[in-house]
Amino acid sequence: MLRFLYEINDNSLVRKLLQLTRTLLVFLLVCCTYTSQNYARVNQLSDTQIYSESIKIEEIIRGKNFYNQISDSNPNTEFRVFIKTGSKSAYNLLSKVGKQARTFQSYSGMAISISKAKLYEIIFEGGIVGVWENSKFYTTADTNNLLALNSTQEIANFTSMVSAHDLWNEGTYGTNTKVAILDTGIKTDHLALNVTMNTASRILHKWNFLESNDNVEDDNGHGTCLAGIIGANGLYGYDKGVAPNCSFLIGKILDYNGVGTTELLIQGVDWAIENGADIINLSLGSFVKDKESPEIEAIDNAVENGTLVCAAAGNMRGKEEFGYNDLYTILSPGISKKAITVGAVDNNKVLYEHSSAGPVVVNYVGSTGQTLFDSVDLSNTWLKPDVVAPGVKINTTAFENQKTTIVTGTSYSTAVVTGVCSLLKELYPTNHTSTIKASLLSSSADISPEIVTPLGDSVIIPTSAKYQGSGLVNTTKASQYLDNPPAITIWPKQVPYSQEVYLLNELSSFYFSIYVNLPITSLSIRYYAALNPYMNFHNFPIYPSTGQYDILMELSTTEGSIGFRNFPLEIVAGSSSYDLDVSLYISKGKGRILFDCNELDANNFYSMYGNLYNLLDISKKFGFNPAILSKDGVPTSISDYNMSDFEVVSLINFNSSNRINYSLQDKETILNFALGNQNNGGKTLILLPSRSSDILGLNAMLQPFNISYKTLLIANETLDVSSLSNEFFSCYNSIDFLVIPSPLEVVKENDSSSTILDRFVFYDSRSTNNSLIIAGNNVEMFQYSPYLYSSYTSSYHEDFSSLHFADNYRLFENIIAYSAIYEPTITYSLSTPELSLSDQLIVTMNASNNFGILKGWDFFLTVRNPPGSVNSMNIISYDLIDYGNGTYKLFFSPEKYSLSVGDYLLSIRSSFETKTWSIYLLSDYSYGPLIVVISITICVLFFSYARLRRTRKFRR
Questions:
Q1: Is the pLDDT assigned to residue 248 strictly greater than 80?
Q2: 3 falls in which pLDDT band (50, 70, 90)?
Q3: Is the pLDDT of residue 301 over 60?
Q4: Other beta carbons within 10 Å of 545
Q5: What is the 3 state secondary structure string of 402-426?
Q6: What is the rounded CA–CA span in Å between residue 637 and residue 402?
Q7: 220, 509, 810, 815 — which has fewest CB within 10 A?
Q8: Does domain 591-817 have CATH number 1.10.760?
Q9: Is residue 907 exposed (0-12), middle (13-18) or buried (19+ Cβ within 10 Å)?
Q10: Burial of residue 102, with CB atoms counted within 10 A of its CB: 0-12 exposed, 13-18 middle, 19 or more buried
Q11: Rounded to whole angstroms, what are the CA distances from 729 to 72, 502, 742, 745, 813?
């Protein structure tokens, strides 16, 4: 338009008006730009201010107990800590205010002594990534050397069990390999240890990190036992170790009690690397307080720089210190992704009953070091152990005189694998550490023991990878793998391993590893296109070099995947492809179940003898969102809960005599829940008492239902289920008998029957008020851990300790099936489908099921680009308000996520379902005023021009 006006007349007045208009337009544009920049600057300052004010010291100081220890201390109390900085200024400040600062080669932080006051000051200055305790580490031997539970356990011929003899026959004995044993030292004059099988001096380097000298004499015995398993020379009447011709680097980092610290461990790792160690043996462990602890970084760096690290899984499975838990018991540094983590088996190739199992979690809370695992965080976890090896009844060198001794524990199975690595390192000295580890993962043999049941049946029980990793190490097959390795190896072979059952739209994240053995042009991952919105992969290498790559997989289950799902992911390496199996069970959420593990007090952390996580999985399978009353060792009264939040309550080990007793208010709450008083609706109560329960108190509470318990003298009974038509036992059509532990019997009034069948379902008035009571047999059914595997993989469960034998989890499945909830009803309301970038969108939900309103559920608001968009975006908002009456509101502010104008898909996800709308975001900046100004200016110019023309015409 301006150009047009210039062309029709070149009059000076018009030119001036045009120049004025142009100046006005430039001024408006500058103002808009300045306003936009100023707005951005204000936002930036605001974010910076928010960041500086939002530093949470409990997130910087890693480990719940360590944070509590520091926060409760005097400001002048001094701590020895590990600190990692994110800025040079913070590092320099630390060096000035701290004492005895020490830096490391394998760890990027520093160890330093500092007071609480100065530590807090530096944290609030900013630049501190994390603060860790200088934790204690202990040997992972087990004092229970002679195990009476299984009479078939004999002295293990460990070298033969891992096929070391095959390589010996080829002349491979670990020659010219350096094995660093970081432990309690060694008996330096032991005839089986001080020279190789060729009588050459084998202790190349030694250092005592406790006393800063070269005296590494073993004052505990643990290190000497390890050395004999790794490489006893076989001379003077002694048996050979796995690598009898290897050389030793002896670093004493544990004292006479077998105790050391993180600082000593990392110093030892640095020293081993400096002295050219090929393999480091770490037969020690500590509770996991943080998955990113300093020793983990040190070990990962050591492996990435060419040193193999073999670490013990730990001996904590089924131990009181870990609440008798079966899973989640891996110790640090065995949690290191790069290390080869080793569990233990006996001479029968049966898993050692205390060999720690995965996956990796933070398993430490409380000042006593005891833990409860039923509410552990399973996000961003990874699978351990990697392999198992002989570790029960191992005959090895002792530090007393020139004797031998018999030992048990994952310490010693780790030493076996260290010896295997020495043999492989001799044969393949230039192979990458990740390729040698991959050879063990690919060649190990699955252990699935054959068990003879009390009924005389022979049953093979599958052993989950959570217990055995890839299986029993096989040296011969590992060497064959290394002769011609594939381009890549994937471990584990199946995901997810962290859980078996998910509720709809439940989020999960876990790692799997890709071992790249050969040069490849590219690496990619392929799967069904329909899965694309629900899977994310982080750290996936496109053009990888040789090494181990740990891929974080994020999985969000979806409505279209209800039931058992199985599909492959395809990893493509150049022209070859490899499958990763994805297998899981997904159910649609319907209601909630509360598990009351009332066995907790200040010093005891029991939770269904470590098997409650199986019950949680079963609950999810039937659509129950589980909650745990006394989770993380913090006792909570059942009367503190609003029972209308739950449809089912399960009482486990009611009022165990040496635990917390139910109050009268608790009992009244339970009765009201089951009877339907106080508008609770008459819901489901599942009882799982034991012989140690308060039977009199339980019977008093059950009086309104005409049900009572009595104690039996027998240890167990056999139930004939071959002809039962009762639905409760319907899953046993293919089984003739069940052996069930029965120290308790449930008696119904006016009922003289005493069959086991009548000890499960006893009160059911759902036809009138939806009420159901199920009296489970007893908690001892779940007591022991060694072979209590899930019913999804096995029909039988073995208990070595008591010979109780029953399919406990399928029984519990049937109990839960009787507590079925109907499909929930949810209504949605969207405040507007169109909003400006600075506005707020509100989605309102109302949820209920056949028992009543639903409270305490999670809803997630997701905004993403529509299919086919060039830019990919997936934003999840958690700004949820639960009003407690079945009403929920989710709030979404576009400017919080710096979104631009355009179309988006907004979804509300829950374990019930997913609801999606199309929304449109409008600009905050209106061009209307600018258009008006331009229009007015053009009008003024036009009328001025017209008037000027008329004036000229008039003058002529």
A1: yes
A2: very low
A3: yes
A4: 10
A5: CCEEEEECHHHHHHHHHHHHHHHHH
A6: 59
A7: 509
A8: no
A9: middle
A10: middle
A11: 54, 25, 17, 18, 10
- Of the candidates 810, 151, 792, which has an alpha carbon nearest to the alpha carbon of residue 462? 792
Angle at 263 between CA 84 and CA 356, to 5 degrees: 100
Yes or no: say if 849 and 821 are a contact pair by the CB < 8 Å rule: yes
Q: Scanning the structure block, which residue is given the tokens 């339970």? A: 670
Tokens 């142009």 belong to 22
pLDDT of residue 547: 96
Closest CA to 311 of 280, 275, 278: 280
Separation CA 880–CA 892 (nearest Å): 10
| Peptide linkage before 894 cis (omega within 30 of 0) | no
Per-residue tokens: 126: 């900013």
- Phi/psi for 555 (5° steps) reads -125, 130
Sign of the CA dihedral 937, 938, 943, 948? positive
Which one-letter amino acid corresponds to residue 246? C
Confidence at 642, pLDDT banded by 50, 70, 90: confident
- Measured CA to CA, the distance from residue 638 to residue 596 in angstroms comes to 8
State the Cα angle at 578 between 573 and 579, rounded to 5°: 140
Contact by Cβ (8 Å): 332, 286: yes
Q: Are 174 and 246 in contact (CB under 8 A)?
A: yes
Q: Considering the chain, what is the average pLDDT of its residues?
A: 81
What six digits make up the tokens of 786?
A: 């060694």
**Annotated domain spans of the chain:** 1-54+926-956, 57-134, 137-141+153-474, 485-577, 591-817, 825-922
Amino acid residing at 727? E
| Furthest-apart CA atoms within the chain: distance in Å | 134
d(CA 226, CA 231): 9
CA atoms of 224 and 193, how far apart (whole Å):
8
CB 611 within 8 A of CB 372: no
Q: Kindly report the CATH number that applies to the domain delimited by 137-141+153-474.
A: 3.40.50.200
Please tell me the predicted confidence (pLDDT) of residue 53: 42
The reply to whether domains 137-141+153-474 and 591-817 share a CATH topology is: yes
Which residues on neighbouring strands pair with residue 742, listed in sequence order? none
CATH code that applies to domain 57-134: 3.30.70.80
Distance of CA 302 to the CA centre of its chain: 24
The CATH code of the domain at 825-922 is 2.60.40.1930
- CA dihedral sign of residues 304, 305, 306, 307: negative
pLDDT at 165 over 90: yes
CB atoms within 10 A of CB 291: 18
Annotated catalytic residues are: 183, 222, 411
Report residue 31's pLDDT band, with 50, 70 and 90 as the boundaries: very low
Closest C-alpha among 558, 521, 519, 564 to residue 542: 521
What is the phi/psi pair of residue 95, to 5°? Answer: -60, -30
DSSP run (H or E) holding 66 = helix 64-71
How far apart CA 581 and CA 493 sit, in angstroms, is: 6
Please tell me whether residue 513 adopts helix, strand or coil conformation: strand
> pLDDT above 90 covers what percent of the chain?
44
**Contact, 656 vs 690, CB < 8 A?**
yes
**Could you tell me the CA-to-CA distances from 338 to 160, 217, 303, 304, 361 in Å, in that order?**
27, 30, 6, 8, 16
pLDDT of residue 683: 84
Tokens of 410: 């994952």
Residue ranges of alpha helices (H) inside 607-647 are: 612-621
pLDDT band, very low/low/confident/very high, at 761 (cuts 50, 70, 90): low
558 φ, ψ (degrees, to nearest 5): -130, 165
Closest CA to 798 of 457, 424, 429: 457
Using alpha carbons, select from 393, 441, 447 the residue that is nearest to residue 417.
441
Comparison of pLDDT for 34 and 874, the residue scoring more: 874
Overall average pLDDT of the 85-92 stretch: 84
Q: Are strands 247-252 and 203-208 parallel, antiparallel or unpaired?
A: parallel
